Amino acid sequence: MKKVVLAYSGGLDTSCLIRWLKDKSYDVIAYMADVGQGSDFKTYEKRALMTGASKVYILDLKKEFVEDYVFPALKAGAVYEHKYYLATALSRPLIAKHQVKVAQKEKATAIAHGCTGKGNDQVRFEVTAKILAPQLELLAPLRTWEFKTREQEIDYAKRNNIPIDVSKKSPYSTDINLFGRSIECGVLEDPWQEPPQEIYVMTENPLKCPNKPTYIEVEFEKGIPVKIDDTKYESVALINQLNAIGGANGVGRVDMVENRLVGIKSREIYENPAGTIMHTAHRELEALVLDRETLHYKHQISYRYAEMTYYGLWETPLKHQMDAMVQKMQERVTGTVRLKLYKGSCEVVGRKSPYSRYNEELATYGDKDKFDQKLAEGFIRLWGMPY
Ligand code: ARG
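A: This is the predicted complex of the input protein with arginine.
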């Protein structure tokens, strides 16, 4: 019997998949990655076994997710098409990496996922797995299996006594982890329709947020946030805390039409309170400490890094080399940023750093001015001379 490790979420698709793969005479190992989605893993574990999995793995990947995926992307300033903080995209290479490890440990010959053939996630899972373990067979049954509608799958589940939650049927397709939440489908498929309030779970409706602003200070060390208002946090706790503060102030909602890898545009809604706060603060700190040329060069890398992440190219040579360069650029990204959160907005109102390149004596228009304005004339003549 061939062994397959299935990335199992506990949802309808992957629940049916356990049975479906078994019927194709695979020995199915269900693998669940805990990236902070808050699933009831114990219940899903029982269900997977009831449905026919021979074994279930539940791996807590939260710390690794934050430290090796979220923070490097933060340091890189990676925001896809200037709006998407990549919460889903960042989790995929991590989930794939451990899926491959489980497959190797179990001597499985195949791995499977429950992504459709229209999305980005299939690409991210498969490209990562292919790079890390080229010999593994990759199975993506949703692209070809016989079920055309959700109803047909529910039918199949009922016929085969597969336990599922049909009660919480929602018109939306969502993905959640500790760094953020993605929402698509339903009325959102019309880009002209305003998203209904019911789709949000991490962020409060800005209209219902406190009537006075919340100020927070985020302290960074070499590009990584370490303290909030003078309290030190471990990495996962820090993200949770920023999600709570940001979410309570309605911060982090994104409504966008994005370019998918497979060539279509799609309307997506994101909730990313911690990401919004961290990226806003980090960008501002870099503006204070990096020299102009490094900063401008960094902005170009950011765009590229976001593309690489979105495109599933996390484990490629160029992406790793960009990490090395970004790391070097973070040596002086240490300091504190003060932000004002208010009814959905997240504004920087103060920044300081021991490595600040801001020189008040040069910048001031007051009487402490040390800038020699006479030098400007020669500078401008040479600057414009080539033209
Ligand atoms: N468009 C986003 C991405 O490609 C989110 C996909 C989320 N998946 C979902 N089932 N809603 O990263």
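The chain has a mean pLDDT of 97. The domain at 173-290+333-351 is CATH 3.90.1260.10 (Argininosuccinate synthetase, chain A, domain 2).
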